[in-house]
Design a protein that fits this description.
mainly beta, 7-stranded mixed beta sheet, 4-stranded antiparallel beta sheet, 5% helix, globular
Length: 128
């Protein structure tokens, strides 16, 4: 059974850092494009960052709001994808979801927030 489990969320002060992890089971992560979406209360889900499969070179996509602050990476040997979040702002507060999709267009995946599978989410709260 395919499953995505996120971890690493929590409460952090503005300017702080967190690293989210998403571990996959039931499938080989290396064949899939992976992404991080987020949803804040009262707002629509948005794509934060997406990364292509490892099969033909790595392509990444970042929403403009996180460029230069967040970094997505993948460790296929560990079946895990990461989101390093630095210089966090209160507006980054949201539930963050990991997503996987076999269609390897990372820009479309992030812009549409469409994926075949997603996890249950992990809460990130940025507040002083």
């Amino acid at each position: 059974q395919l499953q995505l489990v996120e971890s690493g969320g929590g409460l952090v002060q503005p300017g702080g850092s967190l690293r989210l992890s998403c571990t996959a089971s039931g499938f080989t992560l290396g064949y899939y494009a992976m992404g991080w979406f987020r949803q804040a209360p009262g707002k629509e889900r948005e794509g934060v960052s997406c990364i292509s499969s490892s099969l033909s070179g790595i392509i990444t996509y970042y929403d403009d709001s996180v460029k230069g602050r967040f970094a997505i990476s993948r460790d296929d040997a560990e079946n895990t994808v990461y989101l390093q979040m630095n210089s966090l702002k209160p507006e980054d507060t949201a539930v963050y979801y990991c997503a996987a999709d076999p269609y390897n267009n990372v820009q479309n995946m992030c812009i549409s927030t469409s994926a075949s599978w997603s996890g249950q989410g992990t809460q990130v709260t940025v507040s002083s």
